[in-house]
Amino acid sequence: MNNILGSEKKGNVAVLMPGGAPEVLDAHPNAYVLQLRHRKGFIKVALENGSPLVPVFSFGENEIHKQYPNPRGSLLRKVQDFIQSIFEIPPALFYGTGFLFDFGPFPYSKPITVVVGSPIPVRKTENPSIEDIDHLHSVYIDAITDLYYAHKQKYVPKSTLTIV
């Protein structure tokens, strides 16, 4: 990220999904669980490079497949978490539709709408303090939350947002 965003690289853009692959195991229709509370490395990189953060939210991603119930603490989830800890790939057991049946490996035909928020300006700070990082992280989480609630009714009105 620093190589892409470094000061000698004006005009470059980096796209990062801070929740990463682990969010897959929490992806269920009408439920958005974002793993952001403890993800602060991208905030530090933004501060070090003075790169604005642009909040982006995709509505409908969790509607194109269904996943077998795997609440935290269940035996299935414990097995999934164990496998993910070894291979760093979340072993989601998902399903969708098929060619001839209502069950299969293909995604349901549902719209996915990506909403882009206003950029959050970031002042370049070569050695950001924990307070700097925590403050910008809080601003970013507020921006993602505001973006979700500003558009939720239009795209996935029955959905919930949880940030862990």
TrEMBL record:
It is found in: Endoplasmic reticulum membrane. CDD domains: LPLAT_MGAT-like. The keyword Magnesium does not apply. It holds the Pfam family DAGAT. Pathway: Lipid metabolism; Glycerolipid metabolism; triacylglycerol biosynthesis. It is a multi-pass membrane protein. Keywords: Acyltransferase, Endoplasmic reticulum, Glycerol metabolism, Lipid biosynthesis, Lipid metabolism, Membrane, Transferase, Transmembrane, Transmembrane helix. It comes from the Eukaryota. InterPro entries: DAGAT. Its EC number is 2.3.1.20. Belongs to the diacylglycerol acyltransferase family. This is diacylglycerol O-acyltransferase. It comes from Orchesella dallaii. The lineage of its organism: Eukaryota, Metazoa, Ecdysozoa, Arthropoda, Hexapoda.
